[in-house]
Known about the structure:
- The complex is a heterodimer.
- Helix content of chain A is 72%, strand content 0%.
- Chain A is an all-alpha fold.
- Chain A is flat, with a radius of gyration of 24 Å.
- The relative contact order of chain A is 0.09.
- By secondary structure, chain B is mainly alpha-helical.
- Chain B is 74% helix and 1% strand.
- Chain B has 22 helices and two strands.
- In chain B, helix 4 (41-48) crosses helix 9, helix 5 runs antiparallel to helix 13 (298-321) and helix 6 (93-139) packs across helix 11 (250-265).
- The mean pLDDT of chain B is 86.
- The interface between A and B is large, with 68 and 63 residues.
Amino acid sequence: VGEIVLSAAVAVLGAATFLLARTFPSGKTLEMQPGFYPQVLGVLLVLLAGLQLFQTLTRTRAAGWRRTFKFALPRSFKPLLVLGLMAGYWMLLFFTGFVVSTVIALLAMVKIFGGSWRQALLTCLVGPPLFYVVFQLLFEVPLPRGLLGLL
Amino acid sequence: VLDLPLYTAGSSLILNPMGLGLAFLSVFVGIIIGCLPGLTVIMGIVIMTPLTFGLPMHFAILILIGIYVGGNYGGSISAALINIPGTPAAVCTVLDAYPMAQRGEAGRAIGIATVSSFLGGLFSVGILVLISPFLAEFALKFTSLEIFSLAVFGLSVIVYVAEGSMVKGFISGVAGLLIATIGADPMSSFPRFTFNRIELFTGIDFIIAMIGLLGASEILIQIGNSEAAVAVKQRLKNVWPGFAFIGEHLTVLLRSSVIGVIIGAIPGTGATIAAIVAYGQQKRFSRNPEAMGKGAPEGIVAPESANNACTGGAMTTMLSLGIPGDAVTAIMIGAFIMHGLRPGPELFLKNFPLVSAIFLGMLICNVLMLVQGLAFARFFTLLLSTPKAILQSLILCFCVVGSYSVNNSLFDVFLMLLFAVIGYLLHLTKVPRTPMVLSLILGPLAESNLRRSITIYGGGMRLLEAYLQRPIALGILVLTAVLLAYPAIHHLMAREKVAESAPAP
């Protein structure tokens, strides 16, 4: 199923690219205006999706439907949880700035990754100052500030 | 004839306390990144690149080189002590280094890996210094036709060597080319796929895409399959293997280094492939092949010298032709672009001292790697007990802060997260990520040079005529076609053989 979903997603991406690129100026085919190259890429993606689907179906027929049709879910839902946490971290950065959001994010992440409370607290204490020293002081790269201008 | 000023022009740039200090620090960080399982060289380079924005170009590249050289070597430490390659490039080192460590010779195993990595790296620096100026001089004669052909060749090889299905490699590559079209059209400035977002008008920053695709997504992948590492607890004795050992293994060192340099120079390959090929060749040429896999020194010498020799090979193609040899050099090209430069033959003409500083930087980093590898082996061993939960959390924060610092924009952090999701989905569907990464670099190069060629020579038959008049461009395109057609031809020939050998009904 995963392979078929992949083929379908690639085909949709290719078709959408082609249709969107048709709205760009294309000129004569061989003049290569801005729309020509993305249109070619869109067609290529659709063709590749077809080829991928063909390969999957051929393999499936050879191996037997029951054996091949397993939906390959990830072994744990932790990646999704971490992604959600990262999205939350991103939003917090906007409101509270670097320090508060990083302390919260590090605490949550160490716990999700299976660390102890001691490790989580230690990371929260060491992490933000470490980032501040390395980014802001050593390499003079600015860190995000929140809505109130707080670091 | 050696052009001496070329090799010394950059000495004042990096032979100073700041330069040497940064080189020392970056090699040190590189070895730590390499020796900790789960942290790869690519990830190290990706998270360190945003840090270098505030630095002058020569220091920025020096830091990346230090991490590249140190990281490629560092993988051998965990390979010897915990039977887990710290980096994929140390996958073959495990086979002999761990059995040697189990015999109570962990120090010797790490020492052999250190010296082999150093000599492989040194050999590749020699090749880089000798060959790249000539290659660049030759490449100066290239027009947009040759550059377009070279970019297409690079793209085809990337897909060719991608792990797993070739079709999936192509999907990843074409999707990368598509992402690279986002933003203002390079010739007419017409906005493509920007959806009226002003942030997308300048295109998707290569570094942001890298941090998401190779940095953050790698952590997401690792969370699903975490494994506990058990360290070999023993005192490291006799780390230095001795000059006699080097003399005895000179042929192995030389052969593997040559393999490493050649594979490193081929676009889309990298240290892992170099190490595997060198190990395989050593097994073929060994006087005692049965001993390999049971703690034979040559089983450590071959992959370690090859994976570090790869660095010089990849840098040769990157510096002289502007084509990335592997994902690491692709990120380095991104770093060059961030500083307003593009590697390639013109770099040798316009930025003479920088090229020289890179040569010297490679040399210094290799020497520092040898010194640190031998002197701090015990310290690196201690680091292996660092909890993964702390490391992974800090890396994810590095990814967020690093992507913000590229343009001081939270929109870039959002894009990085989007690429992390894409990278994770690609992993779930077994689509390789490397072709996408390299397409992001080669795509714009291919498109702009093709369009430039069409403007100069005209489209259709006139372009074909131009190709016929330029044998190098035509040769590269023919080679690309042969490479792409080879798997299909090979498959057909194998089927014919099977049909011939099958008994008649």
